[in-house]
TrEMBL record:
Protein name: UBC core domain-containing protein
Gene source species: Oppiella nova
Domain of life: Eukaryota
Domain UBC core residues, every copy: 1-68
Upper classification of the organism: Eukaryota, Metazoa, Ecdysozoa, Arthropoda, Chelicerata
InterPro entries: UBC (IPR000608), UBQ-conjugating_enzyme/RWD (IPR016135)
Signal peptide (UniProt feature, chain positions): none
Length: 69
C-alpha cells in the first residue's frame, strides 16, 4: 500500500503475500541479531552490548512477569 508517512521504501512495505511464517521468522531473526546501531531503548542496547548474560536474565524476568499479569 501507499506510505503516507514517507518512511519506508516500496519493497519494505506490507504485502498480502507475506505469510505468518515469514513474519515470525523475520521477528525471530531481529530478536536473535538486533541492530545496535539504531536502537529504541538505549539502556537495553547498552546492556546487550556490554553484558549479554545480564541482558538475557532481564529479558527472561520481563517475559515471566508479563505472563503473570
Amino acid at each position: 500500500g501507499d506510505d503516507h508517512s514517507g518512511y519506508g521504501q516500496p519493497c519494505e512495505r506490507w504485502h498480502s503475500r507475506y505469510t505468518v511464517e515469514a513474519i515470525i521468522l523475520s521477528v525471530m531473526c531481529m530478536l536473535s541479531d538486533p541492530n545496535t546501531e539504531s536502537v529504541a531503548n538505549d539502556e537495553a542496547a547498552e546492556e546487550y552490548c556490554e553484558d549479554l548474560e545480564a541482558y538475557k536474565r532481564r529479558i527472561i524476568k520481563c517475559a515471566e512477569k508479563s505472563f503473570d499479569e
